[in-house]
Amino acid sequence: MSVLVNKKSKVIVQGFTGTEGTFHATQMIEYGTEVVGGVTPNKGGQTHLERPVFNTVEEAVRQTGADVSIIFVPPGFAADAIMEATEAGIRLVVCITEGIPVQDMVKVKNYLKGTDTRLIGPNCPGVITAGECKVGIMPGFVFTPGRIGVVSKSGTLTYEAADQVVKAGLGISTAIGIGGDPIIGTPTVEAVELLMKDPETDGIIMIGEIGGSMEADAARWVKENGTKPVVGFIAGQTAPPGRRMGHAGAIVGGAEDTAAAKMKIMRECGIHVVDSPADIGKTMQEVLHK
What we know:
By secondary structure, the protein is an alpha/beta fold. The protein contains 9 helices and 14 strands. Helix 5 (155-167) packs across helix 9 (280-288). The model has no long low-confidence stretch (mean pLDDT 95). InterPro entries: Cit_synth/succinyl-CoA_lig_AS (IPR017440), Citrt_syn/SCS-alpha_CS (IPR033847), CoA-bd (IPR003781), CoA_lig_alpha (IPR005810), NAD(P)-bd_dom_sf (IPR036291), SUCC_ACL_C (IPR005811), Succinyl-CoA_synth-like (IPR016102).
């Protein structure tokens, strides 16, 4: 049983009938994910992709038993969509939407406190348990089942790492794209902890970037609690201080925000840090076979 999602997960799509929702729901269904329906206000009662459309998440949960939601809703409405899913009792919410105002995410973060809902994202590629369930926008064919977990702020580097791991003959258990915004639902340390406790994961790849302290926090947790090898990479090694690079959260603001500082902390905590993303798969293979 891998983490967060598996073949038993029942998934609904918020923003189901839109262009993005339609395209990615189709891909998820083709991968084998049990998409049981979707939500688009004022389109309840219709059928889309041979699945029912509901006006509200509450109605969708009541009629389908859904426990996972993926959100393809425009930035101005995405926070409400997350909170609606939480209120309806969805246990895992994956928010793909990019550009949600920080103030909205502050409200969401406070709203989630004390609930049983876990949020992945926003501005993320989603979660995939290889060969079982894809709740996201990642190219499914890259993810072959195996025993290496991936935690990443970057979407494309998630796919690159997975491809390398598969080509190294190892394969993926679960890959979690946590998102690159300043405020996200599940920080690096929580995702690493999930995989560290998963009996079907033998090693973890942790991909971070400049900005914030998530990687340092995770590295210190690994030093104290780690039982499996962790290979790490930090993107943005040539980024100038004070300039946002790519993700909204990728900006160097303090001494520990730089790639060099994060890599130093990670190495001190026993993580096998690579200087180039091209070495991720090879290094994991070497570490496991020591």
